[in-house]
Amino acid sequence: MIDYSVLNEYEISDIAENLAIEGTENSLFSLSEIMDSVLQNKLNISQDLKDKIISNIKSILSKNEKGNIGLAQINPIAGDIEYNAKKVIKYIKYAQSLNLDMIVFPELILMGYPIEDTIDRHPIIVEENIKWLKEIAHITGSTAALVGFIEPRKYNLNTGKNYYNSIAILQNGEIKGIVRKSLLPTYSEFNDYRYIEPSPVVGVQPDSTLCLLDEDSVVDCDKTITINNVKYGISICEDCWNNKDFFDRTLYSKDPIEELAQEKPDVFVNCSASPSRAKKEQLKHNMLSFTANSYKIPMVYVNQVGAIDNSSFEGSSRAFSPDGALIARAKSFEEQFLIVNPLKKIGKIYPLTKGLEKTLTEQKVFTLEYENDLERTYRTITQGIKDYFNKTGFERAVLGLSGGLDSTVCAVLLADALGKENVFGISMPSKITSNESRSDAEILARNLGINFAEVPIKDMVDTTNKMFVTLFNEVESKWDCRYKQSFTQDNIQARSRAMYLWGISNEFAKCLPIATSDKSELYMGYATINGDMSGGFAPIADVPKTKLFAFARWLNKNRKEKNAIPEAIILKKPGAELAIDPKTGKPLIAEDALMPYEFLDEIIWRVENKHEHYWDLMNTTFQYEKKNFVSKEQKTEWLDKFYRRMSTALYKWSILPPSVIVESRSINKYDYKQPITSSRINYKGLSRDEIRGILNETV
Amino acid sequence: MIDYSVLNEYEISDIAENLAIEGTENSLFSLSEIMDSVLQNKLNISQDLKDKIISNIKSILSKNEKGNIGLAQINPIAGDIEYNAKKVIKYIKYAQSLNLDMIVFPELILMGYPIEDTIDRHPIIVEENIKWLKEIAHITGSTAALVGFIEPRKYNLNTGKNYYNSIAILQNGEIKGIVRKSLLPTYSEFNDYRYIEPSPVVGVQPDSTLCLLDEDSVVDCDKTITINNVKYGISICEDCWNNKDFFDRTLYSKDPIEELAQEKPDVFVNCSASPSRAKKEQLKHNMLSFTANSYKIPMVYVNQVGAIDNSSFEGSSRAFSPDGALIARAKSFEEQFLIVNPLKKIGKIYPLTKGLEKTLTEQKVFTLEYENDLERTYRTITQGIKDYFNKTGFERAVLGLSGGLDSTVCAVLLADALGKENVFGISMPSKITSNESRSDAEILARNLGINFAEVPIKDMVDTTNKMFVTLFNEVESKWDCRYKQSFTQDNIQARSRAMYLWGISNEFAKCLPIATSDKSELYMGYATINGDMSGGFAPIADVPKTKLFAFARWLNKNRKEKNAIPEAIILKKPGAELAIDPKTGKPLIAEDALMPYEFLDEIIWRVENKHEHYWDLMNTTFQYEKKNFVSKEQKTEWLDKFYRRMSTALYKWSILPPSVIVESRSINKYDYKQPITSSRINYKGLSRDEIRGILNETV
After folding, report:
1. Nearest to B488 among A90, A478, A507 (CB)
2. By percentage, how much of chain B surpasses pLDDT 90?
3. How far is CA B395 from CA A527, B286, B510, B588, in A?
4. Which of A112, A455, A665 sits opposite B467 (nearest CB)?
5. Residue segments in chain B with a per-residue pLDDT below the cut of 50
6. CA dist list (Å): B560 to A68, B447, B540, B554
7. Contacts of residue A544, Cβ cutoff 8 Å, sequence gap at least 6
């Protein structure tokens, strides 16, 4: 793909002219790419040239009498209606200039998805999005625009939640009709049902129902809308995820797409905000393709891009032909305006994030072959970092570089997301830190080109220890139960380091410290509160350790600057370098304190994805066991340790900084909720006889 | 009320004998109170005496032919099924020994409410609760028991969520029938709809439907169940919160109580788990009374007691006569087994938490008169602390005592919740700390009888500063935008203190450090990350500052040891004592950095409870303004500051430790969700003309 943003006016002009002469479908998409660069303010060209390009695109498109649609895959900011509306209007004007039939935005585009409880506490933002919607309508011409917004329900209604999640169809200065979401995802990261009422009706209702619809006022009208002689059946996100033939089990009894299909639309359109997660791409692709094919109706799907807090949306908007064949797919993790004509099967299939194509058949079992998911992981996280910083107004990150895998991978991701000049790596050696770790950290920083400083923590640790002697003696004079062996020393080191990082964040503008904990260690509570697990953002909190190893190798191979990560970092056994192993006299290895990461990560994967329990795990062979002998005692010890440590890690999960959800299941608190006080769950269960015995003994 | 737990066998025997001779209703309740002490293991008496008391209660009750019901208001542990089941069976056996018709437990008692997503990730606990339920059924006799549990839906179902929130009616060794929850609260702290399917039918279904019910298999049978010639209409919590005559607006279209009423039951029974929140008591009382009265059917309501994480349940189970009059109410915030007979209007009304009676007419406006809510606040929080520690296995708390209001109130609450010997207050003065603050802290500790130590932070601050000079210079050599004035110095102090507290927690068993931030300051982000806002628990995170002042006075007046809080602490203007005000040369006062607390707390109250926006606030007079002149410029400055600071405090809310929800609305992340990246919301909104202008300018 050509990067048009590096070219100048003359070069662009030349290219555009040649493309116009060609006048093919390919030219159409190349010209569109130039305009994308312009619309995203990456390329600055004269108004004349812009007009010329637009007129050329228009001319190619004019061959199709009808069905030209623009997929506006854009990145909103939650609640910043002005920002979102300005973007929307820019694209509407562009679509109009191309004389498209329709421009489609992602779900809830005026508000950004998710907006969560904000609409309940601050209803003014809902009033505002209605005001903006009406004004946007005034500006529309013949090109219809599908614009998502939060719709307050009738003010004098006496039943149900206060809002609908809606889409307005704007055209010729007016609101032509409104579609409301029927199925409300309320699981994992989705909380639609908290403040949204399910629509009592599928498909389009007249504009007269704006802010006035209830069950009784549903108008008996055509559920589709016809724009330039094409009938569209419009739905919102989850509405198309309930196909009873595709899914073994569906969440809702109603299938809005089935209802829409009865009206025989020429094209299905679905406005979505669907975050990137492992395994989701294949599901989405197959589901959309299946739906198009089973009704023999083309499907146009527009997805949000960008990240909102913990959710990173991948875009990859697309269109399928009536036989379920993919005819267009927008880029992943980038804003794009993609033109399609589902009737003429015109569209361009941009490459899917590398590796994902290969996963279109589901991986049913845990494997350490992460290859297929690494570019998606990379783009999900870097987008997550970038947007979290951008949208909260931060620009720079500071992190501790230990020479270990976690901080290393974080540093690479941060450099790529924020720019290397915006990242500061601080090596903060203690007396336990090996010379290798120190120099690995420095080499890494040099390779990445990020800023680097080394500051020892010895004085901090010494002073803290000196103070602790008096303090602990005073406490001990009143309290028993002082530990013979405690984690105090380990934690002093981690907390001293966090003190430095937060200090820099306090002293320098727009700078956030980074929490470097990974998923495997968070599961085990192997992270220090106010230490390595504290920060403004936690980039790899949903990436298990074994994947991080594969990821590091992938980064070395696939980034522009090859091999930025010193091989020594990847080869070294992970360890926090916070304590010395009395057995070896060397820094304690994490796997000795926990268990082999390969084994641990398989437990996590099975518990999260297959909901297996203790005995399932005990009675089946792990990958690790195929290569290594594990005695029953050893396996019991590891499994017991897993459940014990996980139970007491729940508190740490609850105070974990914002982090990108990456895997199909996570411990992110906005994705998975478990009471902290449920730490006494017996994950092994009891037999019927044991239960009987206990009950009989109870007086 | 007599504290039977301090009496010996002979004294109890004497009292019991006299009560038996009296044989009145009052004797019934006094005898029950003795048995409560026994059942709660607070009183140890011989089996003979127990048998005698039980036989006496039974004899008094035998005058009623039917309708004797036991309300088992107990405190479960989330997910600890064995613990919960043992408690359940103990009370079932007791109820059977009294020959009661029925014993009623709170909602979901085998699992504890809420159990949240745990049932999805770890389905073994659902299997387990079914096993336990079946075994408990075997032990039941003629006394019917209503036992709440999570019911997996038919394994081969292909639509809907996986579980019901159910109640089994157990009697004579069998499951007699099952009731499932129809209305699923999904707002604030409630997330029922995440993994629970609404019941397709109201009232009782036969036992044959256990784990087998779907919409098609609903049995057309009587929705009530008859036990000893009394017809009961049973519902679960939210099911009775949808009365369309009582509420101006209801959340659901279906009203299960109305459906049940059509079957003309003799008694309504509702099993609940309803947490304590400001203003909720009057709503609950009036709603239940209204419902009983409008159907002319008595209502028996059993509520959970104890705290699960952030939710503190107040118990106060009760019964209403057919005319809506209160005939019984259990104690608040204590386990109790209360016997009622709604047909004979027999029951005892235990006093409501002090002050709440007075609030039975709604306070519609913000007021600084917190008096009516202070005992409830006290009991909600102390129960919250106690159960969080108990249920996670912690016993001791350590906190910094600054001599300020926040840490003072926390210390009192901790001493009362955990026992003074289990609390360690550490005074950690800096050079800014006044001598008054130091001595106030010490006097407070002495008055409370908690452990106390003083450790200066000077060395920590000095060492940190020494290290920071080098570190910041190194960073400055690469990065611009070093603040001229930063909070670095303030935060070093707060973080050094947290370092001490976490150190103690690491070094001594079962000890948690406490986060002392209050609600007003958390709204303003006026709290230090890894400093005063870090801890294992945050007792007063949902109490605004003005309420804390009233609370401190209330504590001085109402605790057994009067005036534990030195008057100076209450009189002093709050300030973090982290920085010197250059204007005065004295420690900076919080109200100067923020705004008057009275003004701030009214904004918070109005935004949370009345959903007011910027202009509502601007255009109406605050209480504070009635007493103090506030210029328009000043008010603008304060309101702007409020929204600006709140927008950037969202991140801090997300990493706040577990805390008790106290007020009717909160910022607790399990109660209120707003994307952190929504910090650019324009809370003022724009006029139509401004919007038009912006849209026209957008190219």
Report:
1. A507
2. 88
3. 23, 39, 5, 36
4. A455
5. none
6. 78, 12, 21, 12
7. A518, A519, A520, A597, A600, A601, A604, A605, A663
